[in-house]
Write a structure and sequence with these properties.
The complex is a heterodimer of chains A (436) and B (287). With 436 residues, chain A is mainly alpha-helical. Chain A has 21 helices and no strands. In chain A, helix 10 packs antiparallel against helix 20 and helix 20 runs antiparallel to helix 21. The radius of gyration of chain A is 48 Å and the shape is elongated. The two termini of chain A are 37 Å apart. Among the domains of chain B are: 102 residues; 52 residues, SH3 type barrels, CATH 2.30.30.140. Helices cover 38% and strands 20% of the residues of chain B. In chain B, helix 1 runs antiparallel to helix 2. Classes of the chains: A mainly alpha (436), B alpha+beta (287). Chain A: Belongs to the NGG1 family. Chain A: Its main location: nucleus. Chain A: Keywords: Coiled coil, Nucleus, Transcription, Transcription regulation. Chain A: Pfam families: Ada3 (PF10198).
Chain lengths: 436, 287
Amino acid sequence: MKGKGKGKDSTDSKECPLQFPDFTPTEHTRVCPRFTAVLQRTEEIGVGLEDIDALQLEIETLLVSVTKRQKQLDQEMKVLISWQEKKTPGKLQPESTGKRSRPDEGKPTKRFKDASGKAHPLTGGGRPKKNFQSQAKFQEYEFSDSPVELSRLPKNDAPNRFWASIEPYCAEVTQDNIKVLEDLIKTHEEDAEYYKIPTLGKHYSLKWAQEDMVEEQKEGAKTNDKRRGLSNNSSLNSTDAEKILKKVDKEYESDDTSPFGALTQRLVSCLIEENLMASLEDSMVDTDSKDNIDDSSSPNPGKGGFIRSLNIGNTTQLEKRIRQELKEQGILELDDVTTENPEDEVLAELRKCQAELKSVTTQNILHAKHLLHQAKEEMKKQELRKKLLIIDTEVMEVYKKMASARQKKKIPTKKEKDQAWKVLKERENVLKQLDS
Amino acid sequence: MQKDTDSAVIQEKLKELYHLIHQCQEERNRSEHNLTNIAKTHERMQHEQKLSPYYKTKLRGLYNTAMQDAECEAELLRKALDVIAEVRTIRNERRLAAKKSERPKETIRRGALMKMLQQNALTLPLWIPKDDEKPPPLCGAVPAEPNYVAKAGDMVASLVKGPDGDENWILAEVITYNHNTNKYEIDDIDEEQKERHVLSRRRVVPLPLMRANPETNPDALFPKGALVMALYPQTTCFYRAVIHEIPEAVKEDYQVLFEDSSYTEGYSPPLSVAQRYVISCKESRKK
């Protein structure tokens, strides 16, 4: 039982498709009390009408178990037959009994009983291996000649392809895998850039107008240069352009919407309202303020003029300063600092996208970390398994030594015994670690 | 007279049952030997870590014997069950005949009636497939064939108009079926209301004639979440319900949630109802 024979056997047992199901029959004394009771009765007593309900249920239970057994047997039988038939010629597997018995399938079992009872002449249980194999070879030739065998030969590599596709999912976890995971987590650390909100730039209409102007100016300069060859005009042109730009600016400002920021507006309106509420007489006297109200509350064309009349150059600057001031005064909370213009669609969109990105990345990080954790655990287990494999071979070696010693009727020395114990204990330890 | 011959027949049947049970046990004893042999062989094969063709052949032989034994045993058990079923039909026929002849019989108390219904449900024959048969109609959730006609004495659910005009699905028993008018004559199982109803077949749903085994034929059960009509426990009326849990073993019942507006969720807590008293929901509700 060594060398080639052994190797083949081990693969054999791995391939064994049999389930070895438990066919132990149902214990009727335990499961079916009424059934058992009836069995013990004499014929005169027999079965009463009152028994049939219980009996029915118990017999049903028995029948279910029998049909289950039939099914299992049928399945195992099929497995057994197909297994015996499926052996590829290269395997040197003695097929003789399997093939021979195939035609007998339908026939009564008596023959099988004989075979099992008397030990089939071709395949005695305790027969020496050598003889066995030569026999097998002989049989093999016989079969490769038979047309049945040939017709079954077309190879089906679907299983191989299937297993190849599965392979990556079952492969061992490597250091590379862990590195990929770690990198994946790291990449998220550089996400901060995506959460920045850039400061509000100039309105695109302004920007475009300016760009258009500059362009036209250049064009104009070129033509001018060509035509007159004078450089004076170009400078004139540029001042012209500035003028026009300013005009555009003003036009923009004179738009219905106030150029002032939210805080400025709020602040001013606060002051005005209070004035108004103070007393009617006051307001009558204070015509200036009244005019102011009228101007700002009604969207008449005078509004733009009024704002311009205030002559406040940079409204955004003003807004910033007010904010700064309010913050210093402690009126404005820090949270409020971030309150933005609610009408800013771009900002809202940006916020929304950022929120989405955030939830996605947190999920990703979470999963990546989970995976990383599991991969690391698996690595540890792999190490242990490798160790176990080594120890297993050691155990086998020791066992072989002992066995051969026993064959030679030698008593194993203390040293050998100690070694055996040591290896076994090591193995147990590793197993424990694996379990925990 | 009829009664005497019937009971003689029953006695005969019971005797047959007695012998069948003994035969079953003999068969079981016989096959047990072979099965232990298989177990031993299994053990040895696993122990050896090596499967010589000798073992394979041996196993095949053992399996073949075991299969034949199992077949014999199954046949005997089926015979025994058939005998039991026959006894039941004889008794049922006798009961029906008695009901016909002398109508006002002693009324069964409600508690006894409920117990009887439970027992009926429990002893509904179990359908045990031979080979790979598909469950037949009226086994578990499998509906009856379209032109099926319930036999006299069969239990049905029937949509009956009550005295105050509202319609209810009640548990009833078929008396006759008139093939000309396509109408059933049925009897309310709750004998307190002693009146017979004549209903068109659309208003009559036969109850399952067999239980399905959840272990072997889960496909013959209503799936979880299915809308059904089920007999409300301790009543003889069917109400709309949703399957909450399906039975896992032969003797278990469904757990169903009845539509009940008196609960905040609109459903009752899970109640158990036997396979026999759960039928598929007729979509046509009273309008």
